[in-house]
Design a protein that fits this description.
Largest sheet of chain B: 3 strands, mixed
Shape of chain B: globular
Largest interface: A-B, 30 and 18 residues
Radius of gyration of chain A: 18 Å
Number of domains of chain A: 1
Strand content of chain B: 5-15%
Strand content of chain A: under 5%
Number of helices of chain A: 11
Number of strands of chain A: 0
Helix content of chain B: 55-70%
Structural class of chain B: mainly alpha
Number of helices of chain B: 4
Oligomer: heterodimer
């Protein structure tokens, strides 16, 4: 498989993972709570650490899956495992289209256990230092695991097919950066005068768009992997 | 006057309401002077509303605050409406 195909798959997978909403929602909560309590400089640092935490867990998860594929799958996923991943993508896409958000016009609540969302809300409210913000970023990204697990598998598989060691590391870093792009964009918007409420209004007004975008990304990824990696 | 939450009951505090509004106003970048005026007006309105009640829940107070905030600053009202609906 050529490096171009690997890079294209990684970019598509990155866009798909970036469209998940839990990390972004956690950052909006953190911004809203922190800006009321702290000076802007401190809020900026908390947001930076949150994003860094989310990127770090993605980086580490991809590295872990590279290790697993390298050691337990002989360096590349075979067609059966790729088909399993494709099936998971198709199921995730359907879940995104139908069930990702809870019902209710003026809310962006996700289908997550109530206790868990309460925990993230509480942590976002109480986060006062950089380490807490970093671990909140880790946690919120980690919580997306049921949807991102198969993506990690595919990305790790693509990275292992690259021929140059340096490019492999660069690809993991680029993938991690791509997945936190919406958070970085939110940070830039807040820096240029917008507030967390503006971001939340955008999310509510464009809820259908983000649901269709996420679901379609999963479906396109499934078709892409099927076409370029299985057939 | 007592404010009742899920598992605790405590005294209503006008100052608590004002601080809460100021904190939320700061987070959506409402200018300080305007935020203080809003907080004062809403706290007065909540005082009047709560005067003849013995026991209210936090949700009741929040709904009343949203009603008062809506004409003063819709963004602030939105923040209260959606505080638990982000994720």
């Amino acid at each position: 498989m050529s490096d171009i195909t690997s890079i294209a798959t990684i970019i598509l997978a990155g866009i798909t993972q970036a469209s998940l909403q839990l990390g972004l929602g956690g950052l909006i909560l953190l911004y809203h709570n922190s800006m009321g309590k702290h000076k802007r400089r401190k809020t900026r640092f908390l947001a930076k650490n949150y994003i860094f935490g989310a990127a770090s867990i993605t980086f580490l998860m991809v590295c872990t899956f590279c290790f697993l594929i390298g050691n337990f799958f002989g360096g590349a996923l075979n067609a059966e495992w790729l088909l399993v991943c494709i099936g998971i993508f198709a199921a995730s896409g359907s879940v995104m289209w139908l069930l990702y958000y809870r019902r209710g016009k003026k809310s962006t609540e996700l289908w997550l256990p109530k206790a868990f969302t309460r925990f993230i809300r509480k942590k976002a409210r109480e986060t006062n230092d950089n380490v807490e913000a970093f671990s909140l970023g880790l946690l919120s990204s980690f919580a997306e695991m049921p949807l991102s697990l198969a993506i990690y598998f595919i990305v790790a598989n693509c990275i292992l097919q690259m021929h140059n060691g340096f490019w492999q590391i660069a690809a993991v870093a680029a993938y991690a950066a791509l997945t936190v792009f919406p958070m970085v964009y939110l940070k830039l918007r807040v820096k240029t005068g917008r507030s967390a409420v503006d971001a939340q209004k955008w999310r509510i007004n464009n809820k259908a768009f983000s649901r269709i975008f996420s679901g379609s990304s999963f479906m396109i990824l499934a078709v892409f992997v099927l076409a370029f990696w299985v057939m | 006057m007592a404010r009742k939450t899920k598992d605790s009951c405590y005294e209503y505090s006008r100052d608590g309401i004002k601080q809460n509004i100021l904190r939320n106003a700061r987070s959506i970048k409402v200018p300080q002077g305007w935020a203080e005026q809003i907080a004062e007006r809403v706290a007065c309105a909540i005082d009047k509303w709560i005067a003849d009640k013995e026991l209210v829940t936090e949700d009741d107070i929040r709904l009343e605050m949203i009603k008062e905030l809506e004409p003063l600053n819709p963004d602030l009202a939105f923040a209260y409406q959606n505080h638990d609906k982000i994720i």
